[in-house]
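Q:
Got a chain?
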Amino acid sequence: MRFTEWKEIAELVGLVAIVASLVFVGLQLKQSQEIALATQYQSRAESVQELVLTHLEIGYDSFIPALRQGAEDGVPLGDIHTVHWLWIQMDNHYYQYQAGFLDQDAWEAQLRNTKELFSFCRMRFVYEWRKKGLRDEFVSLVASLDDPCAGS
């Protein structure tokens, strides 16, 4: 082979290496963005959960009419705050699963917990109020579950 042919092959290999490294950097940037978004979502969920837990600890009677009505109907305030906290947690678990940060087995366990939480008919008013603040994807998932409370 002549020198010019070797030079052309070397240039082609160099070009392929540059393209491959750019693709790799792009994938790393995408993954970093996904991790940052998941971390932000986790932080927001933790902030709201901390607020709910503080309300639970101090026995705060909510100003939210739907939650206040539940307490007036005899549902213990601690149960209301706990279920409120759990719905935020379940939405966060689903987000983490969708983002690839929760494996299939862990998600299936959380899905069973979500189904069980949805089956607490007496506490459904908490979900009905909270779902306005949950992600649409999670609300759609819950809507797809069998509803043991239908007709109650």
Summary: The mean pLDDT is 84.
